[in-house]
Each structure stands twice: as structure tokens, then as C-alpha cells.
UniProtKB/TrEMBL annotation:
Top-level taxon in the UniProt lineage: Eukaryota
Lineage: Eukaryota, Metazoa, Ecdysozoa, Arthropoda, Hexapoda
Alphabetized InterPro entries for the sequence: B30.2/SPRY, B30.2/SPRY_sf, ConA-like_dom_sf, F-box-like_dom_sf, F-box_dom, FBXO45-Fsn/SPSB_families, SPRY_dom, SPRY_FBXO45
Main location: other
Cell location: Synapse
Keyword match Zinc-finger: no
B30.2/SPRY domain span: 64-256
Domain F-box: 6-54
Family statement drawn from the similarity comment of this UniProt entry: Belongs to the FBXO45/Fsn family.
Role of this protein: Required in the presynaptic motoneuron to down-regulate the levels of wnd and restrain synaptic terminal growth at the neuromuscular junction (NMJ).
Known partners and oligomeric status: Component of an E3 ubiquitin ligase complex composed of hiw and Fsn.
Designated name of the protein: F-box/SPRY domain-containing protein 1
């Protein structure tokens, strides 16, 4: 019977495939991409009805009420971004993830630095995600990467992300690169580099093949920030100190060259 199905599978019309696949779970859909070239081609259309249904079923409706997800144009990309968003079980106790699933809110707690990591870490390949900071930065506002061993909360106002050998960050307040408790120079390497303005879009680019971490601001590449990263599993991470500040993160996938 399996042989008959394999023979017939490439000839099933797309409208019938949509109906069949609408009853399957994501893991089953992944397996279906391996059945034949025709089914693989079907799933390459990231805006088809199957991906649309999965996206609308799993991504919170609140995420579509503003322009947050416009940076990922397809339904499959939005679904993927949701599975990479902030982890509500891997953040400071002073942080909560808003109903849209992509935005963290730091509660107004005095003398505390608070962070959050993404749900999925990266050890291979090239990855990019966008970070948008809403609200005042305060004295510390760091964006970057960390391993699971890095702390995500501490007492006082402190550059927590970059404070140990398990995290690497860019403090948007003073344009300093931070790692292992030390400042690693001004970033970007420009004379009188402008400071970050609230609402500007930061893109973090992690290249696990070349072991580098880079940043963009408003789609302008700022250069490589860190090199010689160790072979570890890295998570998108931020650290903040200002009460009621909100930080959104949207995973973009593989960065486009150029």
C-alpha cells in the first residue's frame, strides 16, 4: 500500500493536498516534505493555505495588530519567528512576555538588572534576528548573545550581558562592546558614532560557521563586533534596567548577503 501511495503522491492536486495537510501537525508536515519532489515544492510556497492555517492557529492574534511581523513576509516565516521568540521560562522573574509572544516587559523593580533569552539556541549556520527597544534605555541596555550558563538577573544596575565569559553584548547606551566583564572597545568604529534612538531596529547577525557576531542598525551594517566565538550554543539575549521598558525580538532566519 505504501508503494501505491508513493506512486500516486506526486499526482495529487494542490487543492487536495491543502485539505489533507490541514489535518496534520507540524512534525507530520516536516515528514511530508520528504515524500516526493512534488510535495516538497508544495511546502516551498511559504504563503500557501497550509502555512497560513498553522500560523493563525499558533501565533497569537496580538502579534498581528501592529507592524512587528512585517519584517518576516510569509506565513511560514512568521510561524518560525514565533518558535524562536522570547522564552517565558528563561527570563528574569522581573520580566514577563506579553500576549503577542514577541515582546518582553520589564517590571519597574529598583536595583535590578533583568534579561531574557530566546527559545532556541544556535550552534551551526548563520542566523539573524531583529530587536526593537521601546521605552527609555536607562543606564544599561545590552543586546547580544549568551549561553544557558549566563545569568539573566542580578542585583543593581549592571551590564549583565557581557559580564562573564558566557555572554557577549553591545551596550546601546555608551556604544561599548562587553564580554567577560571587560569593555572591548567602542562600537561601531566611527568617529562620534550616533547613539541608539528608541524605536530604531537593531539586527543581530550570528555566524556560527565563521564564529562572529555583528550588528545592523536601521538596515546599515555596522561591522563585525566579536570574532573567535567559542563552539557553544548561543541564544538571542538582552539585559535591561529601566522600569516598564519593552523589547521585541523577531527571528529572521539566514541573513542575506550584501
Amino acid at each position: 500500500m505504501e508503494e501505491d501511495l508513493m506512486e500516486y503522491a506526486p499526482n495529487i492536486p494542490d487543492n487536495v493536498l491543502e485539505l489533507i495537510f490541514s489535518f496534520l501537525k507540524l512534525q507530520d508536515l516536516r515528514n511530508c516534505t520528504l515524500v516526493c519532489k512534488s510535495w516538497y515544492r508544495f511546502f516551498c510556497d511559504e504563503n500557501n493555505e497550509v502555512w497560513r492555517a498553522q500560523c493563525l492557529q499558533k501565533v497569537p492574534a496580538e502579534a498581528f495588530k501592529n507592524d512587528l511581523l512585517t519584517v518576516v513576509p510569509t506565513y511560514k516565516a512568521k510561524l518560525r519567528a514565533y518558535f524562536h521568540a522570547w522564552n517565558p521560562f528563561d527570563c528574569s522573574r522581573h520580566v514577563y512576555i506579553k500576549p503577542n509572544g514577541f515582546t518582553l516587559h520589564r517590571n519597574p523593580v529598583a536595583q535590578s538588572t533583568d534579561g531574557s533569552r530566546g527559545k532556541i539556541g544556535f550552534k551551526h549556520g548563520r542566523h539573524a534576528w531583529e530587536v526593537r527597544w521601546e521605552g527609555p534605555l536607562g543606564t544599561v541596555a545590552v543586546v547580544g548573545i549568551a549561553t544557558k550558563d549566563a545569568a539573566i538577573q542580578c542585583h543593581g544596575y549592571y551590564a549583565l550581558l557581557g559580564a562573564d565569559d558566557q555572554s557577549w553584548g553591545w551596550n546601546l547606551v555608551d556604544n561599548l562592546l562587553l564580554h567577560n566583564g571587560d569593555a572591548h572597545g567602542i562600537y561601531p568604529l566611527l568617529n562620534n558614532a550616533p547613539k541608539y534612538k528608541v524605536g530604531e531596529r537593531i539586527r543581530v547577525i550570528l555566524d556560527c560557521d565563521e564564529n562572529t557576531l555583528s550588528f545592523e542598525k536601521n538596515y546599515e551594517f555596522l561591522g563585525v563586533a566579536f570574532t573567535d566565538l567559542p563552539e557553544k550554543n548561543f541564544y538571542p539575549t538582552v539585559a535591561a534596567v529601566y522600569g516598564n521598558t519593552e523589547i521585541s525580538m523577531v527571528y529572521l532566519g539566514t541573513p542575506l548577503d550584501g
